[in-house]
Amino acid sequence: MSILVVGSLAFDDIETPFGNSPDTLGGSSTYIALSASYFTDEINMVGVVGADFTDEHFSLLHSRNIDTKGIQKVDNGKTFRWAGRYHYDMNTRDTLDTQLNVFADFDPHVPEQYRKSEFVCLGNIDPELQVKVLDQITAPKMVICDTMNFWIEGKPEELKKTLERVDIFIINDSEARILSGDPNLVKSARIIRAMGPKILIIKKGEHGALLFTDNGIFVAPAYPLESIYDPTGAGDTFAGGFIGHLSRCGTVNDLELRKGVLYGSAMASFCVEKFGTDRIASLDLLEIEDRYQSFLDLSRTEG
Ligand code: AMP
Question: What is the predicted pLDDT for the residue at 90?
Answer without folding.
Answer: 83
